Amino acid sequence: MKKRYIADLYIHNRWYLLITIGIFIFLFSFFLPFLLNVAFIYLIVLLSLTLLDYYLLFAGNKGVQAQRIVNDRMNLGDENTISLSMLNTFSFNANVTLIDELPIQFQDRNFKKYFVIGAGKRAKESYNLRPVYRGEYAFGRILSFVRTPLGLLQRKCVSEVAQVVKVYPSVKYLRKYQLLALSDSNQYAGTKKIRRLGHSMEFEQIKEYVQGDDIRSINWKATARRNSLMVNNYIDARSQQIYCLIDKGRTMKMPFDGMSLQDYAINAALIFLNIALLKQDRAGLITYSSKVNDIIAAERSSTQLTKIQETLYRQATAFEDSDYEALAATVYRKLSHRSFLMLFTNFETMAALERQLPYLRKLASRHLLCVVFFQNTLLKQIHESQPDTMEGIYIKTIATRFDFEKKQIVKELRRHGILSVLTTPEGLTVDVVNKYLELKAKQMV
């Protein structure tokens, strides 16, 4: 730690207060002469304490050492914990005002932490950050402004602990949804119990009948040979191609709780594709805006999720209209086998849907297509409110119209044989996972 005797010196407000008191004593000594000696004694004592304070702060090779403990990557949209560790090597109890130079993305210029650290002792503190943009976040230095118990001067101790942290799509809930995918009961909050219809075509084994087995699965030949009831056991169809299509156009730039709709879609897509891999399906990814940007072929390798995560990490929302014609042409050319396409986009009006409907129908003609789009939560709140002014009634009427159009979009998609999920950004992940598990249970995927 480099020590600068002048540049690192700061005068505390307490010193200015005491020197102001001394000035007033000198002023009053014009009217009360006996105060002049008191003023000189007061000034000498104050200067002596100031010199002592300076000596305690700068004498020897001592100081306050700070360290920041943060993971190499942070999760988008989640509260990430950052820990601070402070070591006081002074021989006195230090009062420390700590300033951590946060990444510019947080726009926090008033970050301060206060510590009282005993001589030779260590103190720890933690705080949370919630990044709402993907990318690289550069943490700077840690500045520690140290005061002795006298508190007249301050010394700045600089800890050079700059580091760059990458913010990736959230993996916080991956383990939770892994359990959901592997569970047959699906008893987690927010999930639906799905009645299985029929059987898949993948035969697993013949086993003895137990109460609760489907009597339609009885294998009569095996029953005759064993002289006991035997049933066929089936498993879900596997190795299906699952693709997430993520719209990066201007409609996905709409903000919600500090994050864009695209960021919510990316978080949900990562969890959804992870579950698809756990279900032994092949997961792939396509991103597009005015043109198709990234294509990851559907695979079931051990490195597929990492490849998808690295691709999602660098996605950026464009301010252009998305080209669904280019998307349909690319899917037609690249995907020769029937696949399940989960399309993350947003339609605010029927007119917006009608412009893209021919291309959605083209996608649905060869693949199982599910369109995921978002409710406008602000308009929904206005729609459910009870206004008492003419202006409020007018605003509610407009909000009701938009809410009605969202429902009409769902009906129009259904009329053309296209599945849909109309959801809120906060409920997106659960609704997408539920839809996938529902289609798996119906043997549609």
Can you give me a brief rundown of this structure?
This protein has 445 residues and is of the alpha/beta class.
Which terms would index this structure?
Immunoglobulin-like, Rossmann fold, single chain, 36% helix, 6-stranded mixed β-sheet, 445 residues, alpha/beta
3D architecture notes:
It is a single chain. The chain has 445 residues and is of the alpha/beta class. The chain has 3 domains: 1-168, Immunoglobulin-like (Sandwich); 174-195 and 237-441, Rossmann fold (3-Layer(aba) Sandwich); 202-235, no CATH class. The protein contains 11 helices and 21 strands. It has helices spanning 13-28, 35-58, 174-182, 220-226, 261-278, 304-313, 324-334, 350-366, 377-384, 390-415, 428-441; strands spanning 9-11, 64-69, 73-75, 80-88, 94-100, 113-117, 122-129, 135-139, 142-147, 153-159, 163-168, 202-208, 230-235, 241-247, 255-256, 259-260, 282-288, 292-299, 339-344, 368-374, 419-423. The strands form 6 sheets. The protein has a 6-stranded mixed beta sheet, sandwiched between helices. Strands 1-10-9-5-6 form a 5-stranded antiparallel beta sheet. A 3-stranded antiparallel beta sheet has the order 2-4-7, with no helix packed on it. A hairpin with a 2-residue loop joins strand 15 and strand 16. The two termini are 61 Å apart.
